[in-house]
Design a protein that fits this description.
With 376 residues, the protein is mainly α. 67% of the residues lie in helices and 5% in strands. Helix 10 packs antiparallel against helix 13.
């Protein structure tokens, strides 16, 4: 049995801090009362009296004491969040920005944005548009599918009483694993090891597909016949499949945890009424369960899209630092990091600002769409 003293440790610390704060205020109140009494005895009139700086400060502490508790968090946000955002916004408009140069930049304008959007940065590799297409497809395919699968698995777990905790633990393990290590291991499922004449293994996925008579596919390399071309955009669909499957698998644990928790709060009377009316399990799922936990589903979709647009480590884990062949699997964040490592900070700032605007647009669209279907 847990020790009650350890269990209430933080509560006692909070009570002590509160007592110290009240003692601190009591000292000043006592001194202030003494001053008022002394002035009363001397016959001074207080109506309209100008407050001293000390009295103003004490009154401010009394009225705004809540802000004192959140000040450390506000300072951290200002240093590590607000300042970088403002700095990136300013630097994005500074042409040929170089922090090591005495002049820092050569001019102010939209040249960084024009070059990024045209793909005219002179560094090769995947263009901004290619990275945007990659990221968008990964996100808008994997997020809805992983949310749907998480819903089905959560409903199944909710109906299983035996070994429920064990299943939850097993399903949550991928969320605790480092994404780079997980991506490297996951890549082996799709990788053909060896040559055509001497193949050590074709990978677990190809072995499974071989049971249906499908020839082995080099998923991680693609190659001729496995790339769709639309203008200047290349879509190596085999690599896309690997990334999407990985993103679905790695995104399931958190979504299952949230949706399973949401299912616990659903009033069981609705299910009893559905049984009386003879509703099937599928109809109960889509007509009762889903609408009742729609706020959580909407939350997962919005945060999933925001997180998907910022994915980077999973691609590096799967395809290495070059993110495929000459960055053909590059994402938006990978595009930004590439220019940071090349010392071309102006393009990196411009790309980050464009990514910020794109995420905001998708978020606003999702929020507006959810208002019509989500009841809080």
């Amino acid at each position: 049995m847990a020790n009650p003293e350890n269990k209430n440790f933080f509560a006692k610390i909070g009570e002590k801090c509160k007592a110290l704060w009240e003692s601190f205020l009591a000292l000043f109140k006592k001194k202030e009362a003494q001053e008022v009494a002394a002035e009363t005895q001397s016959g001074e009139v207080f109506v309209g009296k100008e407050l001293t700086a000390k009295e103003k400060f004490l009154r401010f502490l009394k009225a705004e004491q809540g802000w004192l508790f959140v000040t450390p968090a506000l300072i951290l946000l200002a240093v590590f969040t607000f300042y970088p955002i403002v700095n990136a916004f300013i630097r994005a408009f500074q042409e040929n920005y170089n922090p090591l140069s005495p002049t820092k930049y050569t001019g102010i304008g939209f040249e960084n944005f024009v070059r990024v959007l045209k793909g005219d940065t002179g560094t090769g590799g995947a263009t901004f548009l290619q990275c945007l297409v990659n990221t968008t497809i990964f996100t808008f395919v994997s997020v809805p599918l992983s949310t749907l699968l998480a819903l089905l698995i959560s409903v199944a777990l909710n109906s299983i009483k035996a070994l429920q905790k064990a299943y939850q633990t097993i399903l949550f393990l991928p969320y605790l694993t480092n994404s780079l290590a997980m991506g490297a291991v996951f890549a082996t499922f799709f990788t053909i090891v060896g040559t055509k004449n001497s193949t050590d293994t074709v990978g677990l996925v190809n072995i499974a597909l071989g049971w249906f008579g499908i020839e082995p596919i080099d998923w991680m390399k693609g190659g001729k016949g496995f790339v769709w071309t639309i203008g200047q955009i290349r879509i190596p669909w085999t690599k896309y499949v690997v990334v999407i499957v990985y993103e679905i698998w790695s995104g399931l644990p958190f979504k299952i945890l949230i949706l399973f928790s949401a299912l616990q709060s659903v009033n069981k009377q609705y299910y009893d009424a559905a049984k009386i009316d003879g509703a099937s399990k599928s109809k109960t799922l889509w007509k009762i369960t889903t609408p009742l936990i729609m706020p959580m589903i909407s939350y997962l979709l919005i945060t999933g899209i925001m997180g998907g647009m910022k994915q980077y480590t999973s691609i590096v884990g799967l395809f290495g630092e070059q993110m495929g062949i000459d960055y053909d699997m590059g994402t938006m964040v990978g595009y930004i990091y590439r220019y940071i490592s090349n010392g071309q900070m102006g393009y990196a700032f411009a790309g980050s600002l464009l990514l910020f605007v794109i995420i905001m647009i998708f978020t606003v669209i999702n929020l507006q769409a959810s208002k019509k279907k989500v009841t809080y």
